[in-house]
Amino acid sequence: MNRINLNGVAVYPFESVDLLLDYVDEHKGILVAINAEKILHATPLTRDIINRNIGYCDGAGAKIALHQKGAKTACKIAGCELWLKIVERYHNTKSFYLVGGKQDVIESTVAKLKEQFSGINIVGYRNGYFKNSNERVDTVADIAQRKPDIIFVAMGSPLQEQFMEEVRKYHDAIFQGLGGSFDIYTGHARRAPKWWVDHNLEFAYRLIKEPKRIKRQIHLLKYGWWLLARKL
Prior knowledge:
Blueprint: E1 4-6, E2 9-11, H1 17-26, E3 29-34, H2 36-40, H3 44-51, E4 54-57, H4 60-68, H5 79-90, E5 95-100, H6 103-116, E6 121-126, H7 133-146, E7 150-154, H8 159-168, E8 174-177, H9 181-185, H10 194-198, H11 202-209, H12 214-217, H13 220-229
């Protein structure tokens, strides 16, 4: 599948979640969610991380840009939904390892997954806060020893991608970075209601709930100008 360049960020124009899952079933790698902010604020470091891996469209701004570039059927795939689609497809056939969140969040996540997906094989998990470099090294070694088929890491970008690339040196798998998805899944954080999501206004809902986000989101005006002027 050909990737599309958006401000130096290479994005796979998947047409559906199923097609994405079919792709990673054949091509193991690190799934990286791409939205307007990651495109707008791309640096040499973040571009290199994304372009070495599997960047997928996780936002209306990215989807509009892909459509402008000719990928008219590319769809938005929310990362906080995608990881559960992966669990749903593979919980009876593949093993899982989870890293991320605070200790109570990761424990709640594992408990809820076991309740929701009977028979799921979670071979290991830990929180996303390493007290020192030894803990990080030990976690990488534990993952390499247990050899899970699927690894979820919820630490925020680019830390989670850097950690997954470190793990991948010793063990290949399907990886996905999840940001705050464990918090949403367990009710420690709330996602925008369905109407806001369906109308591509999730960013506005977050801004209403957290006005301080204006410092980040004001930059999206520049991205909007790029779309209008077709500068991507």
